[in-house]
Amino acid sequence: MSRIPFIVGNWKMYKNASSAMELCDQLRTGIRTAGDREVGVAPPLALLPLVQQRLENSRIRVGGQNVHPQAEGAFTGEVSAEMLASVGCSFVIIGHSERRQHFNEGDSFLGAKLLAAFRAQLDPIFCLGETLQERESGATEGVIRRQLDKALASLTPPQASRIIVAYEPVWAIGTGRTATPETAQQVHHLIREYFRGLCGIEGANRLRILYGGSVKPDNVDGLMAQPDIDGTLVGGASLNAADFARIVDYRT
Fold first, then answer.
1. Of 38, 98, 105, 168, which residue is the catalytic one?
2. Which residues neighbour 180 within 8 Å (Cβ) at sequence distance 6 or greater?
3. Which DSSP helix (H) or strand (E) runs through 64?
4. Which residues are paired to 164 by β-bridges?
5. CATH number of the domain that 216 lies in?
């Protein structure tokens, strides 16, 4: 089954209004790849309306970096899925390792966020992955299965098959270290096998699994050549228009 690759830039807490507009203009002119792949960017919350407006009528999707499970309420500093949708977002990142580490977000709470994304018809990009200690102790498979078990517990199999999964080994995020294409492929295959048991062969074959973890122009080709890697979640390199355009224009 053919899966449309998805290349997503996570801007994290970088850029201001003027530099974000400049980057948007550079991306509009720099990304010319044919329509056989999807492209998205996730700017900081305060910049979402500006970025959406600047990228309107382009082929670049805009999404959020975070979402709260509730539709509204007294949750100072939070944003709902409905709010994201109202400013033009079509996807949202859920469970990034930095949210797990710095804001103590657990898998059950992330499962509620997945339901919120579906409620607002946003495509959820669910992040998961192991730490260096967990990898070195041989616990990678157990960690991945535990994260999926808890986060997907409240979802139906049809809902689970609509998730976009992003495997991001924590030890490779912002460190300059990258899992080899073969190492990444092993975990991506493990994830697809998990979904085969949950959603059946057709649902698992539909599932898009992205790789995130120090993706750069010089390693994206090898990563994207793997059969179970369907795109990338790009951090630092997405802040440079030329680098991100080259990642979008990967060659296998």
1. 168
2. 222
3. strand 60-64
4. 125, 208
5. 3.20.20.70
**102 noted as active-site residue:** no
Q: Which residues contact 252 (CB under 8 A, 6 or more apart)?
A: 221, 224, 225
Q: How confident is the model at residue 26 (pLDDT cuts 50, 70, 90)?
A: very high
- Work out how many domains the chain is built from and give that number: 1
CA distance 229 to 249: 15
72-88 pLDDT, tens digit each: 999 999 999 999 999 99
Q: What is the DSSP string of 6-37?
A: EEEEE-TT---HHHHHHHHHHHHHH----TTS
Domain that includes residue 129, residue range: 6-248
Note whether residue 1 is domain-resident. Answer: no
pTM exceeds 0.85 = yes
Q: Which amino acid is it at 181?
A: P
Q: Phi/psi zone of residue 94: left (φ > 0), alpha (ψ -120 to 50 degrees), beta?
A: beta
Residues 221/252, Cβ–Cβ less than 8 Å: yes
Determine, yes or no, domain membership for 64: yes
- The answer, yes or no, to whether residue 212 has pLDDT greater than 90, is yes
- Residue 190 CB contacts under 8 Å (≥ 6 apart), including other chains: 141, 144
96 is a catalytic site residue: yes
137 in any annotated domain: yes
Please check whether residue 97 lies inside any domain of the structure. Answer: yes
CA distance 175 to 135: 15
Catalytic residue among 68, 96, 98, 130: 96
